[in-house]
């Protein structure tokens, strides 16, 4: 299953949940956190559980839920309500470090047993950058024992408030240093851990040209997918994270060249030098694992 586009859908909107399956998103994240007012939390939980149950055996996309943060006193109620629907994974906001993942994992273990779900099958996606303290713990995920960890994702909105940043972008529209630092740490740590690195969302959902640039840059930088907050963003993200036919042809040529000369360190294709790192990239592009 591809994991290019991760679309948030408010858990308290029956209408939007009803349309989620038709958005083309690779993963739907039913949101119980920021997009749901306190007064609507219980309704959102009930709608989310029913949606997960309906989609459990038919959905061709990932079914995830963003619960409330561990310091909110609401997250256990979120899990108790939605786990009977057997979501594929839990997005944990405001993760403060590996200990947050371990706390959530322990609760999931109990609920899986209670709900008849295979032990360890519910994965965790950690949102790792919403406070300054959380942001500086990002490298620690690489060496911690976190068997449920599926990926790392970062975000700038809460962090900007936490550090009092009046801007997130410079005059050229690029991330400023603090946010670029967090982005790079998320990317490198995810790869070091062998989990999925996800880039943050583009808040201006009407700016599809800007999204196209950001998504293409994210893929080129090594991210495996990107968050989305509006269905219109999904096809743009999917296109950006889908290899072109030209890329596929080149990757196959690289693999064929090294297969023909397995002892070679460097080769030439179309007048350009290639070496073993090119072979690694080609196999990654084609989903080939040794």
From TrEMBL:
Family stated for the protein in its record: Belongs to the HpcH/HpaI aldolase family.
Keywords: Lyase, Magnesium, Metal-binding
HpcH/HpaI aldolase/citrate lyase domain sequence ranges: 4-231
Taxonomic source organism: Novosphingobium ginsenosidimutans
Binding site for substrate: 66, 130
Cofactor(s) for this UniProt protein: Mg(2+)
Classification via InterPro entries: Aldolase/citrate-lyase_domain, Citrate_lyase_beta/mcl1/mcl2, Pyrv/PenolPyrv_kinase-like_dom, Pyrv_kinase-like_dom_sf
Record-level GO BP terms: oxaloacetate metabolic process
Keyword Metal-binding: yes
PANTHER family named among the record's database cross-references: HPCH_HPAI ALDOLASE_CITRATE LYASE DOMAIN-CONTAINING PROTEIN, LYASE BETA SUBUNIT, PUTATIVE (AFU_ORTHOLOGUE AFUA_4G13030)-RELATED
Residues that coordinate or bind Mg(2+): 130, 158
GO MF terms held by the record: lyase activity; magnesium ion binding
Protein name according to UniProt: CoA ester lyase
Domain of life (superkingdom): Bacteria
